[in-house]
C-alpha cells in the first residue's frame, strides 16, 4: 500500500476517533443541561406547591370566619326574637357548623390531590435526570462501539502504518521495513 493511502486512512481513522469522543463529550454536556432543566422544574414545582398550600390555608381560615360570623348572627337573631332557649337555635348552629366542616373537607381533599400531583411531578423530574445520565452513558458506549468498529475495519491500515513506521523509524521494530 502506498504511503499516501496509508496516510489518508490514518487521517480518516483519527477523525473517526475524534468525532466519536467529541459526540460522547457533547452527550454528557447535554445530559448536564437536561439535569439542570429538571432541577429547575423541581424548584418551580416546589414553589407552586407552597403557593397551593398557602392558598388552602387562607381558604380554610375564610371558611372558619364565615362559620363564626354565621353562628354569631344566628345567635344574635335568636336572642333578639327571644328564641335563644329553644331547639331552633341549636339546630341552626349545628347546620352552620356542618356546612363549615363540609367546606373545610373539600379544601382538604383538594389539597391532598394537589400534594399527590406535586409528588408525581417531582418523580417525573427525578426520572428525567436519571434518563439524561443514561443517555449520556449510552452515547459514550455508542462512541466506543463505533471506535471499535473502525479499528476492526481499519486493522489492515493500522498494521500497514505500523509496518511503515517500523521501517522508517530506527529502533521501532514493528515487523521490519515497509515492503
Explain this structure to me?
This protein has helices at residues 3-80, 87-153, 155-168. The protein is mainly alpha-helical. The chain is rod-shaped.
Jot down its keywords.
single chain, 179 residues, mainly alpha, 89% helix, 0% strand, rod-shaped
Mean pLDDT: 81
Low-confidence runs of at least 5 consecutive residues: none
Largest sheet: none
Number of helices: 3
Give the C-alpha Rg: 38 Å
Proportion in β-strands:
under 5%
Q: Sketch the topology as an H/E string, one letter per element.
A: HHH
> Helix share of residues?
over 70%
Distance between the termini: 9 Å
Number of β-strand runs: 0
The dominant shape is rod-shaped
Structural class: mainly alpha
Question: Short summary of the structure?
Answer:
The protein is mostly helical and 179 residues long. Helix content is 89%, strand content 0%.
Give the topology, please.
Blueprint: H1 3-80, H2 87-153, H3 155-168
Helix pairs in contact: 1-2, 1-3
Amino acid at each position: 500500500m502506498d504511503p499516501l493511502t496509508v496516510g489518508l486512512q490514518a487521517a480518516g481513522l483519527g477523525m473517526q476517533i475524534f468525532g466519536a469522543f467529541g459526540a460522547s463529550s457533547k452527550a454528557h454536556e447535554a445530559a448536564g443541561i437536561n439535569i439542570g432543566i429538571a432541577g429547575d422544574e423541581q424548584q418551580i414545582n416546589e414553589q407552586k406547591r407552597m403557593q397551593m398550600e398557602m392558598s388552602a390555608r387562607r381558604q380554610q381560615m375564610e371558611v372558619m370566619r364565615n362559620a363564626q360570623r354565621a353562628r354569631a348572627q344566628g345567635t344574635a337573631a335568636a336572642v333578639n326574637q327571644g328564641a335563644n332557649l329553644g331547639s331552633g337555635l341549636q339546630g341552626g348552629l349545628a347546620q352552620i357548623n356542618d356546612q363549615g366542616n363540609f367546606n373545610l373537607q373539600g379544601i382538604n381533599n383538594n389539597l391532598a390531590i394537589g400534594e399527590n400531583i406535586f409528588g408525581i411531578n417531582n418523580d417525573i423530574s427525578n426520572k428525567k435526570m436519571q434518563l439524561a445520565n443514561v443517555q449520556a452513558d449510552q452515547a459514550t458506549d455508542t462512541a466506543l462501539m463505533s471506535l471499535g468498529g473502525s479499528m476492526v475495519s481499519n486493522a489492515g491500515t493500522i498494521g500497514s502504518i505500523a509496518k511503515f513506521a517500523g521501517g522508517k523509524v530506527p529502533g521501532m521494530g514493528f515487523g521490519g521495513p515497509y515492503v
